[in-house]
């Protein structure tokens, strides 16, 4: 009878140990799940890709842009100061004069890629800033007779908000010529031809001699020849954020 009682007691103790162990494991699992859920609910800081970070944070990007515009003025100043009113320089807008890195940051945060609708909304916000060195160069050109033509693939329907953005940045003048894109076939080489030949949108002004080109992509420039040479009168700004590569 005594042995039987001891057996019953042993079984009871073992059962309690199993229950305690199981309960302990379940509690530990609950804590882990709770921590996992908590971590999932924590707001995560979006890490920008290197290309956008380089443009927005690096001193190298700023120095390269300023260097490009500084060298451009040094190369062109004598020619520009003696030029007449039938001359022009042709400048792209986005990532050449206007800094749209905030648009790129917005795309990253929303996990989106470029699309025409979001781009048009951005343009209409009129929040683009200046590429380093652009204003100083443009201000210097304003002291000459040379006209500035802004030849951009922004759509023509967004010309007004583009102008208003540039007024805010104090880089707009009424004599500036804006040649934005009418439709998909309206490529840049077509508009460059109108400038040189005084046709189409330039017909009332007449042919203009282009003294220099500025851009951030290959299609912003004519093919190099004896008249146009990169580093002499064609100047490329750095843009690692987007392009046709």
Write up this protein.
With 245 residues, the chain is α/β, with parallel strands linked by helices. It has two domains: 1-30; 50-236, Rossmann fold (3-Layer(aba) Sandwich), CATH 3.40.50.1000. It has eight helices and seven strands, in the order H-H-H-E-E-H-H-E-H-E-H-E-H-E-E. The chain has helices at residues 2-41, 50-57, 59-81, 101-109, 116-125, 134-141, 159-168, 188-197, and strands at 87-91, 98-99, 129-130, 147-155, 177-181, 209-215, 234-236. The strands form two sheets. Strands 5-4-1-6-7 form a five-stranded parallel sheet, sandwiched between helices. The protein has a two-stranded antiparallel ribbon with strand order 2-3. Helix 2 crosses helix 3 (59-81) and helix 3 (59-81) packs parallel to helix 6.
């Amino acid at each position: 009878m005594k042995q039987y009682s001891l057996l019953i007691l042993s079984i009871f103790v073992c059962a309690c140990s199993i229950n305690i162990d199981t309960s302990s494991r379940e509690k530990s699992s609950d804590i882990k799940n709770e921590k996992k859920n908590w971590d999932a609910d924590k707001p995560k800081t979006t890490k920008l890709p290197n290309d956008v970070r380089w443009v927005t944070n690096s001193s190298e990007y700023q120095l390269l842009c300023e260097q490009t515009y500084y060298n451009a003025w040094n190369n062109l100043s004598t020619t520009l100061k003696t030029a007449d009113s039938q001359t022009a320089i042709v400048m792209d807008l986005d990532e050449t004069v206007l800094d749209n890195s905030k648009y790129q940051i917005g795309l990253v945060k929303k996990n989106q890629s470029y699309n025409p609708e979001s781009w048009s909304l951005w343009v209409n916000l009129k929040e683009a800033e200046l590429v380093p060195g652009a204003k100083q160069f443009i201000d210097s050109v304003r002291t000459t007779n040379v006209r500035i033509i802004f030849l951009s693939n922004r759509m023509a329907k967004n010309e007004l908000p583009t102008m208003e953005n540039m007024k805010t940045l104090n880089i707009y003048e009424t004599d500036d010529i804006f040649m934005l894109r009418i439709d998909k076939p309206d490529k840049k080489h077509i508009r460059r031809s109108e400038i040189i030949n005084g046709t189409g949108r330039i017909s009332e002004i007449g042919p203009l001699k282009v003294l220099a080109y500025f851009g951030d992509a290959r299609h912003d420039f004519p093919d190099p020849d004896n008249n146009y040479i990169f580093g002499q009168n064609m100047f490329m700004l750095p843009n690692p954020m987007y392009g046709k590569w």
